[in-house]
């Protein structure tokens, strides 16, 4: 009988679908799979080791989850785990061998913060505009990554504190400044109490008569939270353990810049022997200085501009005239004020003009010893001319006239090199003390 093509086609399709369903069932739902490479058979719990067939022979049960490559898989996994562990140890050794770095934040709430950041640490500041409300910068020194914030917009509670080590730069010179500094210390104390900050150092412009008792209770040795104090002027507190002497530096509050020495600054022929531009207080040694210059006729060989009243701010013109005087003079006269240490000493060094320093103690409670005053500069071997009386000045200037240009250039170079070395030493010592005190147990 002849089968119609349509029925034959449908029969083939039906057979194909039936076979596909059967195959799918065996693949996905059958519990008994036997192949040449892997046999899995359920083993009855508590069943005998075999069953007796009709002929009396024993038919063994197949092993549960039998895998002919199981031993090789175990060895492979074991080797892989060993490699992973070895790599983990290798990465750990690399991390340990890397020099550990620490993060410290500096809040500059006094003008000497700019001397610390730009002149000592030589860090960048953005924006470069000196009157900007907010300025910040970052640098690495030793094992420490420093970040710096300064400006009027840096206020309590609005500084991004992302580390637990803090350096606060303050001004404690007069009562108004002390009140402002106290508020900042109380703010930092609250951060310490909340465990936001763990380590605190203070860099402070101290009182010119060394009356700094107000900050004593904040020091850790007196039950406070301040680990380190870097203090300007010859304070008797300095012990190089938790209180260190810090240089006054240049008058950054008057916009005195960072001077980069060049060939002209070193080798130029300077037309004046000396300079003094400043305030002459009544009944002070500055009056004596001006009289000596006038009576000896030396005022014609020196640039001198005297004023009776101290001015806190420079104009652009007065700053330019002052810097010109430093650059055109071989020597800079540095009479004492309320304290022996003055900005003029460091500003003269910036221009290679040798400071002639009045080496006498001033009234107050500053340390009195064989190396005082200016013990920090003297300990660093400052190549200055020290005098105890301005009546010695004519003889000094007479010797100055006899020096050759070559001798003057060599002396100028040595002064600039010393000042650069002094700042570098302060930078290294600062970072070293911070690291040793803040992170010695880390």
TrEMBL record:
Domain RXYLT1 C-terminal: 253-439
GO terms, molecular function: ribitol beta-1,4-xylosyltransferase activity
InterPro entries: RXYLT1-like, RXYLT1_C, RXYLT1_N
Domain of life according to the entry: Eukaryota
Gene Ontology cellular component terms for the protein in this record: Golgi apparatus
Pfam family, one: RXYLT1_N
GO biological process: protein O-linked glycosylation via mannose
Boundaries of every RXYLT1 N-terminal domain copy: 104-247
Name assigned to this protein: Ribitol xylosyltransferase 1
């Amino acid at each position: 009988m002849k089968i119609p093509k349509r029925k034959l086609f449908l029969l083939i399709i039906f057979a194909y679908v039936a076979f596909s369903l059967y195959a799918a069932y065996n693949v996905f739902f059958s519990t008994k799979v036997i192949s040449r490479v892997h046999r899995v058979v359920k083993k009855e719990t508590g069943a005998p080791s075999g069953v007796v067939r009709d002929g009396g022979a024993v038919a063994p049960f197949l092993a549960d989850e039998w895998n002919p490559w199981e031993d090789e898989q175990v060895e492979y996994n074991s080797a892989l785990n060993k490699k992973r562990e070895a790599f983990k140890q290798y990465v750990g050794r690399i991390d340990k061998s890397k020099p550990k770095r620490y993060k410290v934040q500096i809040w500059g709430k006094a003008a000497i913060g700019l001397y610390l950041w730009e002149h000592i640490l030589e860090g960048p500041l953005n924006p470069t505009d000196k009157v900007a409300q907010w300025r910040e910068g970052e640098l690495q020194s030793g094992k420490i990554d420093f970040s710096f914030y300064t400006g009027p917009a840096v206020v309590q509670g609005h500084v991004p504190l992302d580390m637990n080590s803090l350096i606060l730069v303050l001004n404690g010179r007069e009562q108004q400044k002390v009140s402002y500094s106290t508020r900042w210390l109380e703010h930092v104390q609250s951060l310490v109490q909340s465990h936001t900050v763990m380590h605190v150092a203070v860099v402070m412009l101290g009182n010119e008569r060394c009356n700094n008792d107000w900050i004593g209770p904040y020091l850790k040795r007196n039950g406070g939270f301040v680990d380190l104090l870097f203090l300007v002027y010859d304070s008797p507190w300095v012990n190089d353990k938790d209180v260190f002497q810090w240089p006054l530096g240049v008058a950054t509050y008057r916009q005195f810049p960072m001077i980069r020495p060049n060939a002209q600054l070193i080798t130029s022929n300077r037309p004046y022997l000396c300079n003094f531009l400043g305030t002459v207080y009544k009944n002070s040694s500055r009056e004596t200085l001006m009289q000596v210059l006038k009576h000896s006729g030396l005022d014609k060989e020196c640039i001198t501009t005297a004023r009776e009243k101290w001015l806190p701010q420079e104009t652009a013109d007065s700053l330019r005239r002052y810097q010109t005087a430093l650059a055109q003079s071989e020597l800079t006269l540095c009479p004492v004020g309320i304290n022996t240490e003055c900005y003029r000493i460091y500003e003269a060094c910036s221009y290679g003009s040798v400071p002639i320093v009045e080496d006498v103690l001033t009234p107050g409670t500053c340390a009195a010893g064989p190396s005082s005053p200016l013990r920090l500069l003297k300990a660093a071997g400052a190549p200055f001319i020290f005098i105890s009386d301005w009546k010695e000045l004519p003889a000094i200037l007479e010797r100055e006239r006899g020096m050759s240009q070559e001798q003057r250039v060599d002396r100028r170079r040595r002064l600039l090199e010393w000042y650069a070395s002094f700042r570098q030493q302060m930078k290294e010592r600062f970072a070293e003390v911070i690291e040793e005190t803040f992170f010695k147990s880390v």
